[in-house]
Amino acid sequence: MVDSISKEMIIFSLLLILALQLKGSEIGGPIIPTKVTVEITNRLNMKILGLRCQEKHRDMGVHILNVGETYSFRFYPNYLFPVTLYFCHFKYSGGDHHFDIYVQRRDDYCFHNRCSWEIVENGPCKIKPRSRECFNWNVASVPANK
């Protein structure tokens, strides 16, 4: 009796996981977890950009970008609970700012798992296939134009 119930629970659990994975793939989520790449490009007007990105348990260190240069990092987001957060500190002549560069609920389905950002004086701009969405500094998830 117990073995029969255990087998039924295992089969039910596997079917539930499969159904959730298939539902996730319908809305753009991966069936097999894949890494996300975050790209940050310096588009400041003739200014060198210093940046340091990190999450709760991982610090990517300090990086210096000349105008037009790009820094990128990769990671596996938490697919079970969408709580992955990476934040960056940006410094340049005349600016010292923070921004949440990857918020899983906001950025979960970036274009082909690549979240591209351009840093300008007014704030970071997320690059999309046919548009650009700019945000204010020190604001995690509210676009500047809304």
UniProtKB/TrEMBL annotation:
UniProt keywords, alphabetically: Secreted, Self-incompatibility, Signal
Protein name, as recorded: S-protein homolog
InterPro entries (UniProt xref): Self-incomp_S1 (IPR010264)
Pfam families linked to this entry: Self-incomp_S1 (PF05938)
Signal peptide from the UniProt entry: 1-24
Superkingdom of source: Eukaryota
GO annotation terms (biological process): rejection of self pollen
Any single Gene Ontology cellular-component annotation: extracellular region
Family as reported in the entry's similarity comment: Belongs to the plant self-incompatibility (S1) protein family.
Subcellular location: Secreted
Source organism phylogeny: Eukaryota, Viridiplantae, Streptophyta, Embryophyta, Tracheophyta
